[in-house]
Each structure stands twice: as structure tokens, then as C-alpha cells.
Known about the structure:
Blueprint: E1 3-7, H1 13-24, H2 26-29, E2 32-39, H3 45-52, E3 56-59, H4 65-75, E4 79-82, H5 90-104, E5 108-112, H6 126-140, E6 152-158, H7 169-175, E7 177-180, H8 193-205, E8 220-223, H9 231-242, E9 247-250, H10 253-263, H11 268-282, H12 292-298, H13 305-311, H14 313-316
Domain NmrA-like: 35-260
Protein name: NmrA-like domain-containing protein
Keywords: NADP
Amino acid sequence: MSRSIAITAVDGHTGFxxxxxxxxxxxxxxxxxxxxxxxxxxxxxxxxxxxSLGAKIVPHKPGDLKTMVSSLQELKAxxxxxxxxxxxKKYDITVELIEATKQAGIPxxxxxxxxxxxxxxxxxxxxLRQFIDLEALFMASKGDASTSTGHSPVVIRPGxxxxxxxxxxxxxxxxxxxxxxxxxxxxxxxIALGDVSQVVAHVLTGEGKHGFSDQHRGQLMVLTGxxxxxxxxxxxxxxxALGQELKFExxxxxxxxxxxxxxxxxxxxxxxxxxxxxxLVREGKTNYICTTAFHDVTGGHPQEPVDFFKVYAESLQPxxxxxxxxxxxxxx
Length: 332
């Protein structure tokens, strides 16, 4: 049975890469019948590129629940990959997406949450903590007899995306520094976005007698990179990959916000999310790795920091940056 898959937020890095992997990798192409991408900006470069690869792009207009439900029903999708969008109204939009998925009766749903949300505190890390509320809302459909949604759920909590480190390419190129507000001693384990996309693609195309593969169905998967690193250890890994010294600089949250605002094209709410994750690192709440799910789902090993920095060496070495950064799927 070929999967008919709908993916939200395909104009964002995560949604785009998952959709691209499904459409281009032979491991997954043979298992799918169609891929549809919900896009807040259907005219975006990402959406147009996915369209050229064969995806159906569906305009996503928040606030119009009835139209959204109708669009999902017309797609006849049996799988939904529900990714909260990078938007200042992320929470409200995601609540609406969960309700639309429920009303459309899509039976197999994979919800992308965030590692660390269970350790976040509402007064200190409100954006992170909201993922707990969204998870609860998503999982509540499991006991709702009025819909088939919730019959075969998966929740995936990706950790800190290693690609966020590329925001500091200017400092790396011009000053040989990696400035992060993570403190000097606590650790975290960045994970490559390509590794996350591989896990999600396996889940979306996996099949069992109850919907998703029995290996995945009902699972709460936490994904981090394979190596715990302090800021110094991360800089050392980058130095080994680049063949030149890169030094870690511990900066304040105020300084970090200035850098992010100047060098990131992300929404302001996404910058706050990053700052909240950094605060978790400083509080010692990210001193763990969780790679079991990656091993079990893919049969492989997540990308080591040195290998990640080798992939993106061009963005960090002292030379002119390419005009458009191509995200790696992590595939060899």
C-alpha cells in the first residue's frame, strides 16, 4: 500500500528537508504514492522546489479551519507529518492544525515536538514549555471515538539542530570564534537536521497492521546528537574538521540576541526559542544524549560533530559564503 503523505510547514527547513528526502531518496520513493506540502508561503523558493520534484503544494491560511479540513480531506492523505511552523503564532496555528487533522480523520500522524520541553519551566522557557501543551492536545485524540486520528500516533522530540551553529559563520570566518551563551561547563548534543529528517521519513513510510509500523506506532522518540559537548569541545570538533583553530566564546544572553537578530533570518519567536534552549544548557538540563531511537529506526549512527562541520566547512572557513546554503540530508 502506497502512502499518501501530507507535511505541514514545508516552507521551513525541517518540513522542506523531510519532503525532499521522501521525493528523492529511493529508500522512500518506492513506498509513497503522493506527497503534499502545506505552506504558509506557497510562492516561497522551498515550496516551488518541492513542486518541481512532484509535491502538491497546498496554501495554508491560518484562521480558516473549515477550508483547511476540506483541503486535507481532498488530499485523501492517510499520513500527516505535523510540524509546528516558524511563526510568531506558532502555538495557535499548531492547535488549529491538530484540530484540522482530527476533523479530517487522518489516521497516522507524526508530531514533531522539541527535546527539553519536559524540562522547561513556564516562567523561564515559555516557548519550549508550550510543546508539552501541544503534545497533550495531540495525544488526547487517542481516546476520542469521534475520529480515527490518534489511532496510530508518533511523537518525535528533536534536540538542538546543529545547523543553528551556522548562524555564527561570520564570527567563525572573520574572528575564528564560536560565540554561544551556553556557559563554560554544561554540555549539549546538537543533532544534524538531516538525521532528524531520516528518522521522520522512516516513520512516515513505515507500515504495520494498525497503520504505522508496530516498531514506531505509539512511540515518544527523543533525538539528540551522539556526542555531549561543552562550547570548548564543540569548537575543538570544528577545528579538527576545518583544519584551523576555532575558539569558543561564552557570551551573555543579551549579546546572543544581538547576534541572532543581526545574522539570522528566523522569526523573532524562533530566536526566543533558541535563547530558551541555550538557557536549558546553562541550567544543566541538556547533559544527556538519546540516540536509541535513531539507531532503532534507521539502523545507522547519527552524525558526529566533526563530520557535521566537514559537511559545512565552506560556511565556516575564512572565504566568501555561498549565496544559498544547501542543507544536508545526512546521507552518505
